[in-house]
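pasting for the record
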Amino acid sequence: MEINGEQVNKTVTYAQLSLSGEVMKAIEKKGYVQATPVQAGAIPYFMEWRDVIAKAPTGTGKTFAFGIPMVEHIDSAAQEVQALVLAPTRELAVQIQEELRDLCEFKEGVRTVCLYGGAPIDKQINALKKRPQIVVATPGRLMDHMKRRTVRLDKVQTVVLDEADRMLDMGFVRDVTRILDQLKHRKNMGMFSATISREVMDISWVYQRDPVEITVRPVEESKPDITQYRIDLDGREKKLDTIAALITHGEYERAIAFCNTKNMTDRLAGLLKMRGISCEAIHGDIQQRIREKTLEKFKRGDIRVLVATDVAARGLDIDDVDAVFNYDVPDELENYTHRIGRTGRAKRHGVSYTFISTVTESIRMDDIVRNTRMEVQRLKYDEDGCLMLVDEA
C-alpha cells in the first residue's frame, strides 16, 4: 500500500484503530480481526476528517474503509442527514446500505436509507420522514428527491463517491457536481475507485482539499486467489455444452456467467434451465424488485447460476462465488477485471473461464492478457472430448 506515494507495509487489526465499543462489537460479530490495506490506510485519516482519494482493487473492503469512520462520526441524537454515499448502480447502493446497517447494529438511534431509481418514490419519501442520518443513493434518484425537497443535505458532513470511475463514466458528472455544490457544511470527502480516471481527478481537484492519496496495488497479499482459464472452441455453439459441463462436473454450487448483451443473458439463462441447472438472469430491463429477489435467492443458494450483464453485476458483494464464466469476452479490459473479481473473495480460492470461439474474441483476449499481465492458462478439447491444458512453452 502507498500513502501519498510512500510505501507502507504493516499489518493492522481493528482493535488498533481506536474504534468505539459498539462498532467493534459489530465487526467482531462478522468475524473480522485484521483490517485490509485500504481500511488500514483510510480509516485513521477519515477519523480525522481528512479528504481521501483511494485506488484499490475490487473486493478489498472499500465499503468498511469509509463506512467505519462514517458510522463513528454520526450523532445519533441529531435528526439531520449527516453522511451521504453516492453509488453508480442500484445494486451497489443496496449493498452499501446493508453493510452500513451491519456496522450500525449496536449504535442505537442511527438510521440509514437507500434511494435509487426503478423503485416507488413514495416508499422512499416515507423512509426519509423517519429522519435517517445516513443516505446511500444513486445520483439520478437523489436529484429527484432534491427537486421534490423530500431530502435536505445542508447538514451533511461527510460525502463519499464509491466506484467513482464507473459513476462518472456512466454520465453522472453533472448530477454529482450539482449534489456536491449543495453540501455547504461538508467537512470531508472520500473518493473510492478501482481506477483513477481523468474525470475522477477533475472532481478531486475541484472539491477535495489536500486529499490523502491511498493506493493499494494488486500485489500478492491483496490480489484475489483466482485461477484463470481461456477455453478455445471450434464454434459459438460449443459454448453452451462447455458451460453446462463445467458447472455440472466442476460441482460449482454458486457461479456467475457474464454476457455482453441483455438478449444473450436471457437466452443463456433459458438454455441452462432447459438443462436442469437452476439459473436466473439479471440485467437493466428487468424490474428492480425482481432483480433484488433474484440476488437474494442467489445469496441463499436457491439459484446455482446467475447470468448477468456487466452493469447489472457491478458492485455485487457476494463472498462465496465458486466460479465466473465469461460466456462472451468483455468489450472492455476493465470489465474483465471486475468480472473475475466476483470470485476469489474473502481469501477464498476462485476460478474463471473465458470462452473463445472467434478470431475477434481471441484477439480481444490476447489484449486483455497483455495489458493486465495476468496469468491465464489455455484449455482445449482433445480428440476424446476431454479438456486439457495447452503447453505454450
